[in-house]
Design goal:
mainly alpha; 8 helices; 270 residues; disordered C terminus
């Protein structure tokens, strides 16, 4: 009876050895939680870059079909929109490259899972969102320029994608910094918090389709290029703030376990 019971308990292991005794078992046994996780995250970003590329190209082409089939669009607008369509289709490639290259940067060595998750991973995603936004703003500026040259509204499209899911990380450092400063008692630091809020929402007026030859529309075209610089400036400010906040938290985490509590517990009879 004992042998039968042992065979029943060993049955899953027996099946596993007979059927799947190959790379799967060795991968599970040899998985390195320290270095292995980076390799898997690297692969995820590579797949995400490909999915983004295909999804954006599909979204742009789908929007283009609706635009060119609209009878209200003028002939000159359709001719100019061929150029903007090519620009929008091409913009997916540098964006996908940013996602892939930044994700591959996580494949290097690190000093522990805490630093990987709370610093490397977050900083990488902040860079991705900021750089993708800057590239999108640059191509929007190109479209605005062509729209101004052709003196009519041209085709423009944007694709909601997985990058939008990370947008919260991009604004998190600025939000955390303003909340932290506002929570400091006995000091009126509202000027600093208001400045941070203003900077995080600061963009110049611009239009992707600035059709019409006028000084106002020319100013919109110029502002669209300046917005690219503003977006990159916000990216580096967010990175600086997050690295500073992370260094404070890391210092506190390292300091608390080192605290020596000078208590001496003795009985009254001693």
């Amino acid at each position: 009876m004992k042998q039968i019971f042992s065979k029943i308990l060993d049955f899953p292991q027996l099946v596993n050895q007979k059927i799947m005794n190959a790379k799967l078992n060795s991968v599970v046994d040899e998985f390195d939680s320290q270095n292995g996780i980076r390799a898997y995250v690297k692969t995820i970003y590579q797949i995400a870059a490909l999915v983004f590329l295909l999804g954006m190209e599909y979204g742009v082409l789908k929007a283009a079909l609706g635009f060119f089939s609209d009878p209200a669009v003028s002939m000159i607008g359709k001719v100019g929109s061929i150029l903007t369509l090519l620009l929008m289709a091409y913009s997916a490639f540098p964006i996908a490259h940013v996602i892939r290259s930044r994700g591959e940067s996580l494949g290097g060595t690190h000093h522990g899972m805490v630093g990987f998750i709370f610093k490397d991973f977050v900083v990488t995603n902040i860079k991705i969102v900021g750089e993708v936004a800057a590239i999108g703003a640059l191509f929007a500026a190109f479209n605005a320029t062509l729209s101004f040259v052709f003196c009519t509204s041209l085709f423009s499209a944007s694709s909601d994608s997985m990058v939008s899911m990370l947008s919260g990380l991009y604004s998190y450092p600025m939000t955390a910094a303003t909340s932290l400063i506002a929570a400091i008692p006995f000091f009126d630091l509202s000027m600093i918090t208001n400045a941070l809020h203003s900077f995080s929402g600061f963009t110049l007026d611009s239009a992707q389709n600035a059709g019409g030859w006028s000084i106002e529309n020319l100013g919109m075209v110029c502002n669209s290029y300046i917005n690219v610089i503003i977006g990159l400036a916000a990216l580096y400010v967010n990175l600086a703030i997050y690295n500073y906040l992370y260094s404070i938290v890391a210092a506190l985490v390292n300091f608390v376990p080192k605290l020596a509590i000078p208590l001496s517990i003795r009985s009254k009879n001693e």
